[in-house]
Each structure stands twice: as structure tokens, then as C-alpha cells.
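USER: Please consider what follows.
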Amino acid sequence: MSFAAVASSFEKRILLLLAATFWLQGCAGTRAREATFSEPFTFGADTLSYRNDLKWFYYRDPESGKFKHRTRTPEPDYTHHCFVVALAARQFHQHARFEPALPPADEATYRQRIRQVVGTSPREYLEPDERIVIPGYTNLFEFSQAWAGLLKAECGGAWRSYFQRGHWRMIMPFSRSEQRSAAESLACSVRRNRPAVVHLVKFPQLTINHAVVVYGVEETTHALRFAVYDPYDCTQPAQLTFDRQTNRFQFDANDYFPGGPLNVYEIYCSRWF
């Protein structure tokens, strides 16, 4: 066999291997994306007890009316982790099983279990009997009250918020029909007890670049009102609304966003996101 033939055969094998890899990744993502989870995501149980704090203090200038910011003093010690916190909440809901009847474990055991949970891709789906057992606690909120420092250390650094694989999408245009499809997909997802981590953007404006967990929906003739877990607020749910007449998402005003329209897309759901 000639060198050219060998090279051609080798290239074909590489292409087939790459194709198989992408196909398997796609199947894994599809399996998790299409699954019906056994339990609904519940605020105050499946959320973390600590917040991803704001590095800046935001305010509306009384003279200009513009939304401005200044540095917080003292500077918070846990910031820029919104993607990390949102993803961790999703992963614990998806991959962990809390067993309060079992005796509490030691720090080394909990460290290992946390690593197992966050080390399992959110694009994978585990059956209830396959999930990582967290002994001695009823839910994530209770567990995070006792082990906040350990969870902050093991769930991932702030760099993960900057290098999430789906960030490429925010620089592309968002059509109204695409946003309508995104809203319908989110509604379908949460009806199957599957919370979705979404990226909120206004690119090229930088007024918001944030990750939240969508976990509930209320449907009316004119809107879809989504219940949201915002990593910046562990005390109460937020609301993300999709207007069916304008095909636009609206996010309520809060401590860091003046409120108004933005674009939304789901992340941690396929090999591209």
C-alpha cells in the first residue's frame, strides 16, 4: 500500500473517530435535555444558602437618570461566580441524592462527593439510584449552610464564568422567532422538572451578562412568566417574563440591572453550549 493510501486511510479513521465522538456527546446532551426529572426544582431547598455577591454597588444617578456603579467597600470575597453557582445548583438537583437518615460524614468525604457531583457533566443524566449520595442532610440549602466554604472551594473558580463554552453565542444576532422558540423550550423543560441554566445578555451592551436557573413557569395568553433562581439573591425567586406579542424576554429590575428587555439562551445543554 502506498504512503498516500495509508495517509488517506488514517485520515478517514480520524474523521470517523471525531464524528463518533461528537455523536456520542450529542446523544448524552440529548438524553439529559429530553429527560423528565423525578422531582421539581424547589427554591429554598435546591438552591444554595449563600450568594454570589456584587463587586460593585449599582445606583441610578438622580441628576442624569443613568444607571451607574461604584466599588463596594469592603470588597466581597465571593464574586463573579454566577455561572458557577447556577451550574452547581443544577448539578446537585440532577446528580445528587440527599439522605438525611444516614449519619453525617467527615470533610474529606463531603469534598469527594462534591467533586463527584460537579465533575459529572450537566449534559449527562443519572437515574435516581445512580446519583451521588450526600449523607446527613435533607437538601442542598441545608448542606450549603453547614459546608459553604467547602462548596465555594470545590464548585469552581470565577474563571469558569468567563470561559463558559457557550459565550460565543452572545455575539451573534438573536431573532424574535428564535427567542420565541427558546421560551417554548424553557417552558417545556421546566414542566418536566428539568431546571435550565440560561445566559442573560444585552450584547454589545454590557448592562447584563449573567447566568440564572429557570425552574418554573406560569402561562397566560400574553406571556410566559418564568420563576428564576438568581445566584445574586438566595432569599427570594426572581422573575423572567416572555412577552408573546413582542417575542421578547424582560427581566425585572434589581440591585444590578435597571430592568427591561434582553436576550436569553440556554447553556450547559449540548456540546456547543
